[in-house]
Amino acid sequence: MPVIDDIIRLHHIHDAASKAVEFTKTKKRTELETNEMLSFALVRLMEIIGEAATGISEELKRKYPTIAWRPLKGNRGSCDVSDESLPFRFFKVNSAGKGSLRHAL
Fold it and tell me: Would you list the domain boundaries of the chain?
């Protein structure tokens, strides 16, 4: 797979994660249950992340083994807003750490 494909997919992951952080930074957990538009937006962003992660090359996954690629891929169309960890499990990203998506970019 060409490197450019991985770069594009990493940018999709980063953009979707950034939007999810932006959408939730002033929200409370209970708003996921009461704000249907927020819930749908977050589910869609998680689907985008899952789709993009699915296409990441094995070479890049081996290069960055500390990124949890499998859980990211598992979000393709399978998000449930009642899940306590959604969206917070993927958006506590260490923006400077070696295993972070930003480092991979």
Answer: 3-99
